[in-house]
Design a protein that fits this description.
The chain has helices spanning about 10, 15-40, 50-60, 80-95. By secondary structure, it is mainly alpha-helical.
Length: about 110
């Protein structure tokens, strides 16, 4: 239902709107991380071989702490970035034969 004569006060307060958007984004990311942390057993992350290799090779379990593995569906995780890199390499291999492969990095802070 569209109300023609009523103003949206949230959109008129620009800085407040920006703060609201940031707060909601942080809340969503926090909920996603809590879900991943609480459902590690359901996501079957205990089967990853890297943790077992670290325990077998080092034998020192005091340095490991509590491991929380982020899935590739979580944006910004190492697995997510690795999947993006693999997709880019597969795209270049299949579709485009290029002479240069240019990459760039930026500081997100």
């Amino acid at each position: 239902m569209i109300r023609e004569n009523e103003d949206n006060h949230i959109l008129k307060c620009r800085q407040l709107l920006h703060q609201y958007i940031v707060d909601i984004h942080v809340k969503i990311e926090t909920e996603r991380l809590i879900f991943i942390r609480l459902n590690q057993s359901k996501l079957r992350f205990e089967e990853y071989i890297h943790l077992r290799d670290a325990i077998v090779d080092d034998g020192n379990t005091t340095n490991i702490g509590r491991l929380m593995i982020l899935p590739s569906s979580y944006e910004g995780s190492p697995r997510h970035m690795y999947d993006y890199a693999q997709d880019a390499i597969a795209y270049v291999r299949q579709c485009v034969r290029s002479d240069l492969f240019i990459t760039f990095t930026c500081n997100s802070a």
